[in-house]
Amino acid sequence: MYENILIPVDGSEVSDNAARQGFELASRLGSKVTLFYAVDISILTAPGAESAMANVNVMRASLKEQADSLMASMKETAAASGIEPETLVAEGNVSDEIVRAANEKGADLIVMGTHGRRGFNRLLIGSVAESVSRKAHCPVLLIRPA
Hints:
By secondary structure, the protein is an alpha/beta fold. The chain is built from 7 helices and 5 strands; from the N terminus they run βαβαααβαβααβ. It has helices at residues 13-29, 42-45, 49-52, 56-79, 94-105, 119-125, 128-135; strands at 4-8, 32-39, 86-91, 109-113, 140-143. Strand 1 (4-8), helix 1 (13-29) and strand 2 form a beta-alpha-beta unit.
């Protein structure tokens, strides 16, 4: 049914839980998995950021290092479910990059966590999960906090 599953992760407890459930689903279905992380560098590329931050490249390298560490940890978690995922890290707007990666990888399903914010907090912070759900060309399975 679902041959290619994209699992975006961000290192949060909600994301880790969703990833574990995605790995279980992939294991049962025999699906390929792509783990995905988007490095949101918008603060580094905002107008005036160059002068406000002494070394943007150091910040970018640090974010990339964190992403690589997260991917290594998530690959270990996937292995416990018998999954050997491909990993993909991109820079940019998180929801846009998730949708782009899903299209690029031919994902049949996106499995991701949602923090379940409502009301004013959602208005202020926004919802990556909601944005992905609206823009994705495949089903999106949203996993709420336990």
